[in-house]
């Protein structure tokens, strides 16, 4: 029994970060985690509160060396966390994250016909369909300061010009 305890004390771990890739699809997103040389029994996928998926795994390299990883992924709010599924095949762990369906699909489908880009300045300031009121108030406040400064500068520049 003492020999076994001494052996467990001599274990060393190699921590690594697995390669991950997201595939975005219409009804769901898929996270692919590349885990060559792992077996299904050596992996664990857990969904924790606040929409965090934790993926862990460890496997032996030899008698005293193991490799392991611990990956945490924050799931977007527009996803159904209670329907997340995982499948391991061919050395790749597929974590399927279903998206919530919109409340008004008829309105959404008509809005999808309008092509918009978030890189356009108007969409950055106002969003694609709704006004960002906080940003609009900041822009209006800055505009008021610029107009007040311009009026002040015009008045004093104009008066200096008349006196000379």
TrEMBL record:
Membrane topology: Single-pass membrane protein
Superkingdom: Eukaryota
Main location: membrane
The keyword RNA-binding appears for this protein: no
Biological process per Gene Ontology, one example term: cellular response to heat
UniProt xrefs under Gene3D superfamilies: 2.60.40.790
Annotated transmembrane regions: 135-154
Record has rRNA-binding as a keyword: no
Keyword terms: Cell membrane, Membrane, Plant defense, Transmembrane, Transmembrane helix
Pfam families from the UniProt entry: HSP20
Annotated SHSP domain residues: 10-117
Intracellular or extracellular location(s): Cell membrane
CC terms in the record's Gene Ontology section: plasma membrane
UniProt record similarity statement: Belongs to the small heat shock protein (HSP20) family.
PANTHER family: HEAT SHOCK PROTEIN 26, HSP20_ALPHA CRYSTALLIN FAMILY PROTEIN
Protein name: SHSP domain-containing protein
Organism for this UniProt entry: Dovyalis caffra
């Amino acid at each position: 029994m003492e020999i076994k305890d001494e052996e467990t004390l001599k274990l060393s771990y190699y921590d690594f970060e697995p390669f991950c890739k997201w595939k975005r699809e219409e009804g769901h997103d898929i996270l692919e985690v590349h885990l060559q040389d792992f077996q299904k029994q050596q992996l664990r996928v857990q969904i924790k509160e606040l929409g965090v998926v934790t993926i862990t795994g460890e496997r032996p390299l030899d008698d005293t060396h193991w490799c392991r990883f611990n990956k945490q992924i924050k799931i977007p709010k527009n996803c159904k966390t209670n329907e997340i599924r995982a499948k391991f095949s061919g050395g790749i762990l597929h974590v399927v994250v279903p998206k919530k369906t919109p409340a008004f699909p008829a309105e959404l489908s008509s809005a999808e016909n309008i092509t918009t880009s978030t890189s356009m300045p108007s969409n950055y300031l106002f969003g694609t369909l709704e006004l960002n009121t906080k940003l609009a108030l900041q822009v209006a406040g800055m505009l008021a300061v610029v107009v007040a400064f311009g009026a002040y500068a015009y008045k004093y520049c104009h008066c200096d010009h008349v006196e000379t």
